[in-house]
Amino acid sequence: MKIGLCTDSNAQLPPELIERYGVAVVPLTVTVDGCDYLEGVDLSADDFYDRFLDGGSPAVATSQPSPGQFALAYDELVEQGCTQILSIHIASSMSGTLNAARLAARSVPVPVQLIDTGTASFGVGCCVWAAAEAIRCSATFDQAAEVAEHLAPRIGNLFIVGALDLVHAGGRAAGPLHGDGIPILTLIDSQVQVVERVDTSARAVVAMASRAIAWGGPLRVAIGVADRAAEPLSEALVAAVSEATNVVEVIRYRVGPSVGVHTGPGTVGCFMFPVE
Fold first, then answer.
1. Are 99 and 188 in a shared domain?
2. Phi, psi (5° rounding) for residue 169?
3. ω before 176 within 30° of 0 (cis)?
């Protein structure tokens, strides 16, 4: 039996993990100033954030993939010899992506288990990562599905953004985000909340690293960065987290357009989850 893995581009999986586990990624559509693009296919992170340079304020939105896009991804996994498919996606409360996958799964000649992670961004990626590791360690199809299904409440996330107005515009802010200092944010139950305020970006890195390391252990951690200008902060965060003895692996990823429409340039964040 060969288990295939599928997810959507909102999972923000970096090429490192896509290639390591052979994951099929179905792109969301990102609309910028009235033009539609497939995330990661004809719109890269750099292309997207370039639209914000020199004070640019593009009109941005996202929409879920079509059932046909999922059908193509599932067919490709079947052609590769997969006899079961685990399809892991952004929360149904935040996107219609899972519904599109469900429609496509009806015509696939092998079993497809759909997972509503209840989360978004690299939180979805964490669920894929954990399920893939379980499969690598000889987990059955049902066991891998259970890992993906039950991980979300144990995933931590912290981030800072450079465009608080975009977060507010997304309608998921649990309260006022503006105020003194830099707010360190977290996404819990589809709501963005402030967990701490600091007065400099250097202190934001220290605070995020400290909170991430304290999440438990052993941990896998992913550090994300939006635009190139924010890379010094993300690299400082990678260095700080990598020094912790309870962190077993750190990977880097780009905060792609389907997340960037809600956070904008200047975003740096991390996701962490315990290793079973």
1. no
2. -65, -25
3. no
Using the predicted structure, report yes or no on whether residue 126 has a pLDDT greater than 80.
yes
Strand locations in 76-181, DSSP E?
84-89, 112-116, 156-160
At residue 199 the predicted structure's pLDDT band, cuts being 50, 70 and 90, is very high
- Backbone angles phi and psi of 4, in degrees to 5: -95, 150
- Residue 71 domain-assigned? yes
Angle between helices 201-213 and 231-242 (to 10 degrees): 30
Asked whether the bond before 183 is cis by omega within 30 degrees of 0, the reply is no
Asked if 159 and 145 sit in the same domain, the reply is: no
Residue-wise pLDDT for 134-171, tens only, equals: 999 999 999 999 999 999 889 999 999 988 888 878 77
> Is the four-CA dihedral 30, 194, 230, 56 of positive or negative sign?
positive
pTM: 0.94
Same domain, 94 and 229: no
pLDDT tens digits, 202-211: 999 999 999 9
Q: Tell me the pairing of strands 268-274 and 156-160.
A: antiparallel
- Two structure tokens written together for 89: 């996606």
- Coil, strand or helix: which one is 55? helix
- Are 243 and 140 in the same domain? no
What is the residue range of 200's domain? 155-274
Q: Is residue 36 part of a domain?
A: no
Domain count, the chain: 2
pLDDT computed for residue 190 by the predictor? 78
DSSP 8-class letter at 13: -
Is residue 247 one of the residues assigned to a domain?
Answer: yes
Residue owning tokens 């996107």:
95
Examine the fold and report which residue of 121, 153, 185 is the final residue of a domain before the chain moves on.
153
**Residue 56 CA, distance from chain mean position:** 25
